[in-house]
Structures are given as structure tokens and as C-alpha cells.
Amino acid sequence: MPAPDPLGFLRDALAGAEDAALALLGQERVRLAVTGLSRAGKTVFLTSLVANLLAAGAGLRTLPALEAASGGRLRRARVLPAGVEAVPRFDPQAHLAALAADPPRWPARTEDLSTLALTLELDRRSWFGGFLGARSVTLELLDYPGEWLLDLPMLRQSYAEWSAATLARLRRGSRAAAFAPFLEFVDALPEGAPAEDPLSRRGFALYRDGLRAARDGHGLRLLQPGRFLNPGPRGEAPLMWFFPLPRPGGGGLAELCARRYDAYLADQRAAFFEPFFRRFDRQAVLVDVLAALHQGQEAFDDTAEALAEIAAALRYGGSWLDRLTGQGVRRVALVATKADHVPARQREALAALLEDLTAAPRERALAAGAETGVHALAAIRCTEDDVATLEGRPVGAVRGVLLESGRSAKVYPGEVPMRRPGPEFWRHGRMFEMPAFRPPRLDPHGAAGVPHLGLDTLLAWLIGDLL
Amino acid sequence: MSEAPGAPPRGPRVILEEGGAPPRAAAPPPRGAEGPPAPRLDFGWERTVAPAAVARLRPGTAWSTLGLLGAGAGVLVLGLSALEAANFVAAQFARATWLGVLTLGVAGAGYGLIGAALWREVRGLAGLRSVDRARAAFARGDHATAREEALRWAAEVPAAQSVLPALRGCNDPDSLRAILEAGPLAALEAQAQALGRAAALQAFAVTAVSPSAALDALIFAWRGVRLVRQVAALHGLRPGVAGTAALLRRTLFDAATVAATDVAVDAAARALLTNPLLEKFAGEAAAGAVAARRMLRLARAASEACRIVPPR
Q1: Any stretches that span the bilayer, and where are they (chain B) (predicted)?
Q2: Shortest Cα distance from B62 to chain A (angstroms)?
Q3: What is the CA angle A53-A55-A59, rounded to 5?
Q4: Same domain as A333, residue A461
């Protein structure tokens, strides 16, 4: 396991002092981490957030709940001009243009990190303070491949622990089928297999193919390491040529895999977690609960387990060191995305289901002093509520325009349970894939924001107290 | 699985509707496009979020603890001293009428001067508030408020009086902004730059010959404050002490962003002038060049802070 960073405290203290000085000058900085598993809708969420905040800053009522929370003090919002950052810049305009294009395109799978900062100019709360000019709050946003988030729990595990836990998981349920060639390969490896590259590359390729099959064929989410599924712009490097072994403590190949495991985690820590994930103040965890529900019991339970693993690995600012340096997350919002895929009366059930699913992680966050809230939202609303007749009975449905064919379709999303469903719920046995809808009519420049459901309520809860 | 009678069907379904286009698809064809656009839902979002649809919330203001403390102390000092002075005047009248009249005159003059100073402060702060209102109105596209503020501002600023008729004829914030930026604001910008160059020349000269770094800083600060007040006066603002402090705070935060650049320029200038014979004078001259650059930047930042139109 890689050693923890000894200078972390010093860096946290410096960052805390810098934040305090900026706040004293009326130039607060808030780092909002938008986290979530892959395909949870992070990119669309960030695009909608930026477009709607910019429009709200221009006086449009795109975010009424946030406007109420800020007491109508938001005067202006603008994207902070680029400086000399080495990280790619998140481009909401390009995403909006693609969504508004004919034919429309949803953002592709995120392949790399990108960042963007928004500055919100606000009137001061006090009458005297008003003479000091506008206060500003800078929101720092980050988009990244969701698969990488699952490397976070690995930081607390040694190679031997990770190998044992992963292999036990691979032998269960539909994973066993997806990973059959890999399991056959590792089970056939002799004890003390030599540290040879052809062997390690073969094992890596089989393991990576298994991860892909589990993700694409079975809708599973708890798949580690994240860069195996989404290597990012740097591509596949030799430090990734490792995989779980049944006897991870020996020499030869096992020792080589253990060294590469440590090197991989050190690299992820240095390139991703330390600079971007160590310090943030507010956090939104996005979950596509409905898709997990539609993909069957195993995928649903797997999503819940992945969420619990991630939540356990996040840093909530509860320790005395965090309090001393002013670091750590103060508010965590758990968000069920794509809420427009269910009719209005089922959105509460969607939020309640997520609440039930994340009860344990929420308790942990609460114990650490972070507030938690559960929300259901659609960052871009693509459907409207309707009624369908099924088996002679009227049922609540949603209606939208299908992305591929351009035909109007009603979708009955099934009943969304308010709690983690029991075995009888899964007995209908059919897996269902929600069709992709076309985005609604949009201004390609996003001057009026974009239609959404519940984004304003989420932002009011998440950052309303800072405005 | 058999479902309970009356219970909704559990499994999700997709039900395709007859015909391609949904009833509410109303996207207009893009100019120059061939064929009809792809059908989409239209929520009428632009109309829903238009600022005119619902009255904007009035920003709430509250008294901060420091504000309450300051106001209380002010009331006590002024109120009690006024009562004390009134008692003293009454006592003087009891002694002799001429003495009472004289004391009343002295007290009236003293309080009158204090009142005039307070009035000047309030007017200066109100001017800044007015600039804030105008900028906020331009930023959110509130034409009525932006026009009202622009007309009031133009009536008070000599450089803008020529565009008053054009401003009265404007029907949207964009044309208001265009007229202001092309006319009076461009002229004010040029005048601010001229003031900045004059201040820069003085800062350069003083820094090059001054005997100590502490004196440099003092002179730079004094000249900087004076420059900010001069630029504010160009824009029709007459800030008092509190107004100047507020303006300095706004200006300096912006100007501070160039501090890092200045450090690099300073180092480069000093590195170029490494001749030992020239070191003494040229080193100070390099510091003076940096001070002059800062003064020019300060003039630009002060002008930005005083504009009634927000920067694009």
C-alpha cells in the first residue's frame, strides 16, 4: 500500500489559510466535487449547472429555489478566464452545441479530467457591507471518468487484500461468467510463476476484457481498477499490467503484480486524487438508480456496494486535523439522476430508494460532521408526464422523442420501490434498457439555460448557505 | 409472476406512438437548413424563465454586528455630545445673552461642519451604490433600470452630456451599452490613462531618487489613492473617506492580480542591468519602472471599477 503523504497536513493548512484570506476579502472559493459512477450523468449535470447558473446571473429565473436561498442577491455569474492550467478545460458550450445540434448528440463517455471555475458575484448581506462592493464566490468544478472513482477504495488496501476481495467477488453471480477466461488463467498459474511480461500482459488483457464484459453486458459497477476500463489520454502503461492472484504473497509474478499495484495507486494518487480530490467543500454524488433497478438484482446490489465503498473512502472533514486546517466536505448531496425518466409521482420514490440504498454511508458522513441530503433531479429534462394504458389500466408514464428514430414514445418505467426491493420484486425477471431520448429544444448558446427538474433545489441545499 | 388485482404492471415498457412528431414539437427550422428539423419537445423554457414573467426578489439586507456596533457608538457620541452642547448653550444663555449667542454660533458651526462631512460621505457612497445598481441592471438586461441610471449618470458627467438624446432614444440595454462604450466611456478611459501616465511619471521619478524603500512605498500609496480619486471624479463620483476606501478595495483586488507579473518584470529589469557601475542608479530606475507600470495598471483598474457598464 502506498505511504500516506507526510506533507499533506502542511498543504491543507496552507490551503485553509488561503481560503480564509480570500473569504476575508469577500472572494470566497468553494470546490464543488461532482462525483458519480460512470454513465451517471456527470458531464450533462455540469453542462446544465454552468448554463443555468450563467443564465441566472443574467437575471433569468432558471434556478428559482437557489434565487430564494440567496435572497435574490446573485448579481452576475461568469466563467473565470483560463489561466495557465495544465488540465483540459471543461467546455459546456461544446456540449450544449452538440445537444442542440441536428441530430442531437449526448456527451460521449468522459475520457479525461477537465476543470472549470465559475464566479458568482453577489450583493453583500449587510447594508454597510454593500459599500464594499460585490462579494464573489468561485465555484470550482471538475469532470472526470467515473470509472476512476472506484480506485479510491483501493488506496486503503494492500495488493494481497485487494486480490483476495476481488477474486472472491469474481467467482460470484454473473461476474463468474464474464471473467471465466481470466479465472481459468489465474487458477492454472503455478505457485511461484515467473515474473515474465508475456504472462503479466496476458493476465492483464484477460482481466481487462472481463471488466469490460461485466460493465457492458451485465451493468455491473464495482469494477476495479478504473483505468483498466478507461485508461484516459495516457493510454495503457506497463504499470497497469497486474491483476488479482489467488496466492498474492509469493515471489516472481506475484511480487511483480504487487509492485505494479503500488505504482499504479501512487500514480493515480499523484495525478488524480491528490490534486483534485483531496480538497473540496461540497460534494454531489450522482447515481443512476433507475438504470441499476432496470438491470436486475445483481446490478442493483453491485451499485449499492460500489456506492458504499466510495462513500467509505471519501474524506468528510471530521478529524481534528481537518477541523484545524478548515478542510473536508461540509455537505454531501446524494442525487438520483435522470429523474425525468419517471413520472412526477414516482420521483419521490426514486429519492426514497436512494436514501434507503445509502443509509450506511450517510450515517458515516453524519458521524463525521458532514450534512447529507438526498435529491432526485434531471439535469436536462427530456420528457413530460403522460398516462399510458397497459393491460386495460391507466398507468403513469413519461413521453419523449426517441434519440435514434425521432418517434414519440411513451415509456412506463415500472413501479419504483421506496425501499431496497425484496426477492419478489425481481421475479418478473426482465432486464430493461431505458431508451435514449432526444434533448428538448435548446438554445445552442444556452443563453436561457436549459430545462431541468430539481437542479435549483439541489443547488439551494448544496451552496445556498454560501450565497 | 401473478400481480395483485388493481396493482400496476411491474415491468417497464416502451409504447411507440403513431406518427413521427410529438404534439408539442415546435422547433423552428434553422436558417438555411434543408428539410424539417428533428422533432423535439418544447417546454417553452425561454418564456418560463424570462425575468418579466415573475417579479425578481428584492435582495435582503441586514445589519451586521459590526454595523450595529458602529451605528450605536456613532449615535452615542453624536447624540450625547449634542445634548451636552445644548445644555452648555442653555447655561451660557443663563449667564449672558451675548455669551449664549456666541456659544450657539460656535456649536452650530462645529456641528454644521460635521454634518457637511457626513453629507459628503453619504453622497459619495450613494454615488457608488448608483454605479452598482446600473452595472447590475446591465448584467441582467433590465432595460428600465439601466436606462434610468444611465440618464442620471450622463446628466452629471460632462463627458457624457452629448449622448443624452441618444440614450433617451434607446429601447434595449445592448444599444444603451453600445452608445456608452463607444462615446463617453471611451473618452473617460483615455482621460484615466492620461492621469495614469502622469502619476506613473511621478512615481518613476520619485522612486528613482528617493533614499529609502519605505519612503517609496509611502509615496506610491499616497499617489495611488490620489489617482483613484481623480479617476472616480472623472466618472462623476465624489467619494469621501469611506467611499475612497470602498473604491480602493475594489480597485486593488483587481490590480493585485498583476502583482505576480510585476515581480517577474522587476526581476528581469534588474537582471538586464548588471553592470556594477550602473547598478546603483539603474537598479533604482528598474524599481521605478515597475512602480510606473503599477500606476498605469491602477488607473485602468480604477476606471474599470467606476464604469457604470460592467466589463464584457
Answers
A1: 66-90, 96-119
A2: 4
A3: 110
A4: yes
In a domain, B235, yes or no: yes
Cell numbers linked to A445: 448558446
Number of structural domains found in chain A? 3
Backbone angles phi, psi at B48, to 5 degrees: -65, -40
Per-residue pLDDT tens over the stretch A54-109: 999 888 889 999 988 888 888 888 888 887 778 889 999 999 999 988 888 898 88
Contact B216, B206 (CB under 8 A): yes
Helix (H, G, I), strand (E, B) or coil at B24: coil
A458 is a domain residue: yes
Give the up-direction half-sphere exposure of residue A247: CA atoms within 13 A in the CB hemisphere: 11
Closest to A34 (Cα-Cα) out of A23, A15, A47, A53: A47
Q: Chain A: nearest CA to B263, how far in angstroms?
A: 17
B32: pLDDT confidence band, cut at 50, 70 and 90? Answer: very low
* Residue B57 included in any domain: no
pLDDT at B277 over 70: no
Domain boundary among B132, B153, B182: B182
- Tens digit of each residue's pLDDT (9 = 90 or more) over A389-438: 888 888 889 999 998 888 888 898 888 888 888 888 887 665 778 888 99
In terms of domains, do A17 and A143 share one?
yes
Among B residues 235-254, those touching chain A with beta carbons less than 8 Å apart = 242-243, 246, 249-250, 253
* Out of A217-231, A283-297, A307-321, least confident range: A307-321
Q: B167: domain range?
A: 143-182
Look at residue A2 and tell me if it is in a domain. Answer: no
**Buried b or exposed e, range A178-210, using 16+ CB within 10 angstroms:** bbeebbebbeebeeebeeeeebbeebbbbbbeb
Q: How far is B187 from chain A (nearest CA, A)?
A: 25
ipTM of the complex: 0.72
**Cβ neighbours of A414 in B, within 8 Å:** 9-12
